[in-house]
Specification:
Layout (H helix, E strand, L loop, with lengths): L3 H13 L6 H7 L2 H6 L10 H12 L4 H26 L11 H7 L5
Helix pairs in contact: 4-5
């Protein structure tokens, strides 16, 4: 059980921790979710896009391991580019099923 002085001290400290107050501080902190979200490991193996890319790559002669690595890296690259465009163009079109997988496949030289 906390003592009364500790409770009072905690409440006073909480009043000082209300987040950024300046417009610059608010603008900087608004980017935290994107910055930290890009550092998160993503399990691409459960996505339809990953399965599709991996099958295209194995069909072109890549080993299963190589195809898995390339597919995951392509999807991660796309995730980073979506975050970049969302940040700098203010668009919200970051759904992996809305982008054309054939263009990605052709971009790396696969016959689709």
């Amino acid at each position: 059980m906390l003592s009364r002085p500790k409770i009072v001290a905690n409440r006073l400290n909480a009043q000082l921790s209300t987040g950024p107050k300046t417009s610059l501080g608010k603008r900087v902190s608004s980017k935290n979710s994107t910055k930290h979200g890009l550092n998160v490991e993503i399990d691409f193996e459960s996505s339809d896009a990953y399965t599709y890319l991996k099958s295209l790559l194995t069909g072109e002669g890549y080993s299963s391991f190589e195809a898995a690595d390339i597919a995951a890296n392509l999807l991660n690259y796309r995730r980073v580019m979506d975050a970049y465009y969302e940040t700098y163009t203010k668009t919200k079109e970051v759904d992996e099923f809305n982008w054309n997988m054939n263009l990605v496949a052709m971009g790396i030289g696969l016959d689709v």
